[in-house]
Write a structure and sequence with these properties.
heterodimer, A: 238 residues, alpha/beta, Rossmann fold, 6-stranded mixed β-sheet, 4-stranded antiparallel β-sheet, 34% helix, B: 462 residues, alpha+beta, 6-stranded mixed beta barrel, 14 helices, 11 strands
């Protein structure tokens, strides 16, 4: 594995010696242990590692869902560790889109309502919401299934809805936690194609957690290897 | 999150668990209905009592006497009056002044004299009293047989049923429309020359002094007179609940007619001693537009230098009693609502547990703790609102049933139906508002529990 030189010109994300420890049974779990990482704007980065190596925790820290025990997480120059919970919510609402392995769609809501939900929190007006829902669903190729419920869709389609929801508030950073984990390889490939295309067309930075190195190598621009909460190595791809 | 989005999401969330939320709403509605039924019963009973007491004509009336006359009801106040003999006299100018006071609708003397009715050659003794035209509103005239006086000076008479029976035991009602003769004593002033012209010789000197020119300065004599009267009506009960001087009569005349007939009254003895100034009244009854203004009018009359009495204090006690009654009814009514509150807490806590993952997702896609809290509050508020509306409808049905039941019971006892349950419009609004507030309070704990959920944990384990 080759280490890569990290550019310092306007990085999208930068972590400095970030740690996240959890107390457990009298001991401490070092889920993330002193990771310093810089991700450039528009870059597609894959976080790779064995299960439990801290990649999902790092993703949660980048998403502002969790706070570091020490160190700092800078996103577009703003330190997430110093933000109030309201500011973090606003950050998640406006700057980040998240895609999960289990899709995490709300089953009682239609596809339209699911995609509309983050816009409700962002107080986007009703007329614009309708337009953006259609746009986002068309971007992921689901323009004709607006009134279906998630249970009526295949896994791949659900992940597309999840992606459309993540795009609804036009974020600059897309965080994907094992987006292909619940999909067959062909569908997974389609989803990653979609993510890469959107990343290029929308100029979005993408950080993806995956255990599938082959897929990561095909779509990401850089691989970041983690083990035991530590950054093991990085590999830039052509 | 905007208000309408919040409301829309809350309602859609509630619709997800129709049975559970429906049962909770019914629980709240039973609580609200019980509260509404109890409080409306309190309001109804209070209005019934007030209506009854207002019907007695006591609560909108101020009784006025001169401080020169007998002791009033307030002995302390009497002791404060240093020279009662200099106090103003209750005469015609004083009556005129009172008539012009604000909120005063009527000032009438309390006239009650002895008289006799002559009918079919028989004489029947009874007290004659003068009634103002406003007496028509008195409940004693609700079941009036015949008619009320056609005018304040009409030569007409209304008889008490017992008295009518005395005149005609077989067909007392047959007296209506018939003419009877009233025999009474007329008060005639003595002129100075009359004193020396064969009238009983008076040993004293005229009290008014040598300059006095009014006939009354020399006293008066009582002359027997008769007056033809048409019987227009018969009443069963004494007017004003038998609580006033004019109630205790059996022969009722329009008050202006009794004044015109110049009937000799007991108070004339006092004025003959006082001398000068002409005709005076023993008691004037001042009718006030609204029972709430009685104190104000009483104060104004006191400032004119007269002694006054009203049963205002009795209404205060009545209000105090009903406030306490309402409080107790409210407490009993609230018990069901307190139980409903527990149901709301239970429902919402269950919803938080069931929707852990959903809450986590919402937070991950940008909902703040405040948004989550407000959403659960909105759900609690919506439960309260729907429960409140349903509760009002249920309470209304219960109240109607109470009124129907009471009506049947009263009818069986040959009594007129009374509305004992009255739902005032303010109570509708207040009950819904109260239901929402209680539900919001019940939502405090579940909402804060939902807001505190850690999205990382909820998304990890689901």
């Amino acid at each position: 594995m080759n280490s890569v030189s990290i550019s310092t010109a306007a990085p999208a994300v930068r972590t400095f010696n970030v740690c996240r420890y959890y107390p457990m049974g009298g001991g401490i779990i070092r889920a993330v242990d002193g990771i310093s990482l810089t991700i450039e704007s528009g870059e597609f980065v894959a976080l790779l590692g064995q299960s439990g190596s801290g990649e999902s925790t790092l993703l949660n820290l980048l998403a502002g869902l969790d706070r570091p025990s020490s160190g700092s997480v800078l996103v577009q120059g703003r330190d997430l560790a110093k933000m109030s919970s309201e500011e973090l919510a606003a950050y998640r609402r406006n700057d980040v889109g998240m895609v999960f392995q289990a899709f995490h769609l709300i089953p009682s809501m239609t596809i339209t309502e699911n995609v509309e939900l983050p816009m409700r929190f962002a107080e986007v007006n009703r007329a614009e919401r309708g337009q953006r829902v259609r746009e986002s669903l068309e971007q992921v190729g689901l323009g004709k299934r607006l009134e279906h419920r998630p249970s009526e869709l295949s896994g791949g389609e659900q992940q597309r809805v999840s992606l459309a929801r993540a795009l609804a508030n036009r974020p600059s950073l897309l965080l994907a936690d094992e987006p292909t984990g619940n999909l067959d390889s062909r569908t997974g490939e389609d989803i990653l194609n979609l993510i890469r295309d959107l990343s290029i067309s929308l100029g979005m930075t993408v950080v993806m957690v995956t255990h599938e190195r082959a897929l990561a190598e095909r779509f990401a621009q850089r691989l970041v290897f983690l083990a035991d909460g530590k950054l093991l190595s990085q590999e830039a791809l052509a | 999150m905007k208000g309408y989005d919040l409301f829309e999401l809350a309602v859609r969330n509630l619709r997800q668990s129709k049975l559970r939320n429906g049962l909770t709403t019914v629980g709240i509605s039973v609580g609200v209905a019980s509260l509404v039924a109890m409080l409306s019963l309190g309001v109804g009973l209070q209005q019934l009592a007030t209506r009854r007491l207002a019907g007695s004509g006591m609560f909108d009336t101020v009784f006025v006497t001169s401080k020169q006359d007998f002791r009033g009801f307030d002995r302390e106040e009497d002791q404060k009056t240093e020279h009662p003999e200099n106090a103003p006299v209750l005469d015609e100018p004083a009556r005129a002044k009172m008539t012009h006071l604000q909120y005063v609708t009527e000032v009438e003397p309390e006239i009650r004299v002895m008289g006799e009715i002559v009918s079919a050659g028989q004489t029947h003794f009874g007290f004659v009293t003068g009634l103002p035209m406003s007496a028509r509103e008195n409940e004693a005239f609700d079941n009036l047989q015949g008619k009320f006086f056609s005018g304040p000076s009409a030569e007409e008479v209304i008889l008490l049923n017992d008295f009518a029976k005395e005149i005609d035991p077989k067909d007392p009602k047959g007296l209506i429309g018939q003419e009877v003769t009233l025999r009474y004593g007329e008060r005639q002033a003595l002129a100075p020359d009359a004193e020396s012209a064969g009238r009983p010789q008076l040993s004293g000197t005229p009290a008014g002094g040598s300059n006095a020119t009014s006939g009354d300065d020399f006293g008066f004599s009582v002359v027997r007179k008769t007056q033809k009267l048409k019987v227009v009506g018969i009443i069963e009960e004494e007017p004003y609940g038998g609580m006033r001087t004019v109630s205790r009569g059996r022969i009722f005349l329009p008050v202006d007619l009794t004044e015109k007939l110049n009937m000799a009254q007991f108070s004339d003895m006092r004025s003959s001693l006082r001398g000068g100034g002409g005709k005076t009244y023993m008691t004037l009854t001042v009718r006030v537009k609204d029972p709430g203004k009685v104190a104000q009018v009483q104060d104004a009359i006191n400032k004119l230098g007269f002694r006054t009495f009203s049963v205002l204090d009795a209404t205060k006690s009545l209000r105090r009693f009903f406030t306490v009654l309402d409080l107790f009814l409210g407490i009993f009514g609230s018990l069901a609502l307190a139980v409903a509150t527990l149901a709301i807490i239970n429902t919402l806590v269950m919803a938080v547990l069931e929707r852990r993952r959903e809450i986590g997702v919402m937070k991950a896609i940008g909902a703040s703790d405040g948004d989550v809290k407000r959403l659960f509050f909105a759900e609690a508020g919506a439960l309260g609102f729907f429960g409140g509306v349903l509760g009002i409808a249920l309470g209304f049905a219960i109240g109607k049933a109470i009124n129907v039941g009471t009506g049947i019971y009263l009818h069986r006892h040959q009594l007129p139906a009374e509305a004992v349950w009255i739902l005032p419009p303010w109570l509708i609004g207040a009950a819904i508002a109260f239901s929402i507030v209680v539900s919001l309070l019940a939502g405090l704990y579940p909402a804060s529990r939902a807001a505190k959920l850690d999205p990382v944990q909820t998304l990890k384990y689901e």
